[in-house]
Amino acid sequence: MQQQVMACFGGCVPEGEGGGPYLSHHEAKVARLRDKELTKLLNKQHKEDLKRLKILLLGTGESGKSTITKQMKIIHINGYSFAERLEKIKDIIRNVRESLLSMVGAMHHLNIPLENAESRASADFILDQAARQDTETSEEFWDHCEKLWSDCGVQKCYDRSHEYQLIDCAKYFLDKIGEIRSLNYAPSDQDILRCRAITTSIQHIEFDVPDAGQSVKFRVYDVGGQQGERKKWIQVFDNVVAILYLGDTSCFDQTLREDTSKSRLIESLEIFEQVWNNSKSRLIESLEIFEQVWNNRFLRPVSILLFLNKIDILAEKIAKGRSIKDLLAQHPGVFPDYDSCPVSSNERIEFMDAFPGGTEQTTKRRSRSSSRTDINPEVVKTAVYIKNLFTRIVRGELSINKTIQPHPKEWHQNHSCEYFYTCAVDTNNVKKVLEGCRTLIIRKHLESVILSCGTSGRNGQQRAPEVIPEMTISGHRYAVVTAIVLAIEEQ
Ligand SMILES: Nc1nc2c(ncn2[C@@H]2O[C@H](COP(=O)(O)OP(=O)(O)OP(=O)(O)O)[C@@H](O)[C@H]2O)c(=O)[nH]1
Ligand SMILES: [Mg+2]
Hints:
By secondary structure, this protein is α/β, with parallel strands linked by helices. The chain has helices spanning about 1-10, 25-50, 65-75, 80-85, 90-110, 120-130, 140-150, 150-160, 170-175, 175-180, 190-195, 270-275, 280-295, 310-320, 325-330, 345-355, 360-365, 365-370, 375-395, 425-455, 475-490, and strands at about 55-60, 205-210, 215-220, 240-250, 305-310, 415-420. It contains 21 helices and six strands. Strands 2-3-1-4-5-6 form a six-stranded mixed β-sheet, sandwiched between helices. The radius of gyration is 26 Å and the shape is globular.
């Protein structure tokens, strides 16, 4: 893609003919020189780009992609400065306002009355804020927020949040209004991780990770996952080394949020109606998009690291009596039977190992992990069942998106899919998972480098990618790869 852009630049020198404006000889010369410089610059940039391992974060809206990039900043870069923390306050205020707006709107639809007559004035005050984009707040605003959140009617509405659209961090921030409204408030790492802001443009972060005495350079792309944002994904498919696909395990009882940037802040009850009527299951959407990514011809050699995310919210939902069985019953014949889905002891341990809150011993010693009593077996079963849905898609045993023609097994032989249970707001969990991913990504990348050399003949039909000799991979592995590449080229 980069090359296409450069080709375009190369072909754009105006010559005064062919429809372009007439340029003097001197002007044309200057333009040509400028174009040459630009092409050189782009070439250099392109080479620099190729030295970094390019990772893509994909997944549907609100699955946790940006939260993972925030964790990368905390773990691999220097975290958040004081000024950056203060910047986040605006988003947190929007989160508080949007949460209360969603609940007040939903109470109307769900026929849940406010318990306290005095809360009416607070509800009206918040509804009046619906069209506001700014983040100016007053003591009056915070008083109304606190009053509303303490109303039992609002709490009842919160318990039914799967029936409408409510951001995941609603309770987290509403429970700490007292702290947020203080003039001295500076968001903690956890506040930043919990804070929700929709992604509407392609963003990336870069960092270096030490590996066997050398540093491995990464560039991670974060894209928007809402419906309208997904058409931009293809722009970043070039030279991808691995995909981190975020699948939300807790969304089985939720429907899609209406896809418009307007819904970031529900501007009016009219938009609320749209949201209300959008009834496509979030889990089915996530499986469908995963199936598209797995079978996408541009991503054929790219391995997927599947993050089965939000396992903490999954546990909260099961504790409230929610069950994936309701969704399965709405789609008879599509999904495998839930009750007869087996959970092996290894699968149980894998999940318990990842689940937040394990003590040092439980996270370090596998045998103790299996004896954790704080996790409801139904949580494990649901997580394993959802994991199996994704892995069935990988094996071609389940197809959700009927417009996709599944490829035969051989088509997939150059990429694989590995899964991890994650809680993206838990730094310990993400740190552990990222360590595992790093090794896998480097291994997969080396395999693909070797493979691409293996398919390139000495007589030149296809040269080994330019990137190989310049790759900054850990010392000894780099040496091994170079040796293998040379050996293949010698043949
Ligand atoms: N409790 C909990 N919250 C999570 C977890 N992962 C993400 N969240 C929250 O879910 C919300 C959405 O996360 P984002 O990272 O913004 O989701 P996204 O995939 O980037 O969404 P788009 O930008 O719309 O594509 C945020 O409020 C996060 O804090 C998790 O594992 N547990
Ligand atoms: Mg995002």
